[in-house]
Write a structure and sequence with these properties.
mainly alpha, globular, binds adenosine-5'-diphosphate, 9 helices, binds magnesium ion
């Protein structure tokens, strides 16, 4: 089952609740090595995305992703707003006028998005940023695109698992980008907030894709 506009809409809208639930967790992480606003930033941004999607009802995946991008850039201060905004803006560009997304197409979207984050933030793997969650997630997606190209739910689950490992792997690292880098060695021993929000985002994507796939299967059975 390929992903469509309903998936992207539902996924992005689900992030409001996700970041509401995890606001304090993210803010706690950011208070250790930043300025204690990451949870607030993410909740504010995705509440606004939820509202805009409801108001404007964009009619294509490209437009859904673009609206998310512009809303995040407009409403989120701090590093994460422009970085996630750029992710969704580049993903939107890569979606062009496509309406159905197999695993390889999701790779195209997320690859473009990650390239935007890297271009803008200049972080590499191991710099203790959100990039440390995105890179292993993309690798997992690429493996799945080859092994089970028509199973985006499975691919997103694998990507979410890899993002979570990447997130945990930020703990022993010293930050080399962003606000946490000002702490030097004192950033060691703490989990990066942005890698954590990326991991949460991908977990939400996997959950929504699994729900859609489950529904499509039971719908399929009912019509037999
Ligand atoms: P700020 O640091 O401006 O307060 P947030 O707290 O919302 O913004 O976001 C912090 C997160 O942003 C960090 O945990 C890190 O993952 C990510 N980040 C910061 N700078 C960069 C960068 N140059 N490249 C990639 N990610 C970055
Ligand atoms: Mg912060």
């Amino acid at each position: 089952m390929n992903l469509d506009i309903h998936f992207f809409n539902t996924w992005l809208r689900s992030l409001r609740e996700c970041f509401k639930e995890n606001r304090d967790y993210l803010t706690r992480l950011d208070s250790a090595i930043g300025d204690a606003d990451h949870g607030i930033n993410m909740e504010r941004g995705f509440s606004a995305v939820y509202e805009q999607l409801g108001k404007e009802s964009p009619g294509s995946v490209e437009a859904v992703l673009k609206l998310a991008a512009m809303t995040l850039i407009r409403t989120v201060g701090g590093a994460s707003g422009p970085l996630y905004g750029t992710f969704f803006l580049r993903a939107s560009g890569a979606a062009s006028d496509k309406s159905e997304f197999a695993v390889a197409d999701v790779v195209t979207l997320f690859d473009a998005g990650l390239a935007g984050i890297v271009q803008r933030g200049k972080a590499q793997l191991g710099d203790k940023t959100m990039v440390d969650a995105w890179i292993p997630a993309l690798s997992a997606l690429k493996v799945c695109a080859a092994e089970s190209p028509e199973d985006p739910a499975k691919a997103l689950r694998r990507a979410a698992q890899e993002a979570e490992s990447g997130m945990r792997n930020t703990i022993p690292l010293q930050a080399r980008k962003g606000r946490a880098s000002y702490l030097g060695e004192r950033s060691v021993g703490h989990q990066d907030p942005g890698a954590t929000s990326t991991s949460l985002m991908l977990q939400a994507a996997a959950r929504v894709a699994e729900e859609f796939q489950g529904r499509a299967r039971s719908g399929g059975l009912a019509t037999r």
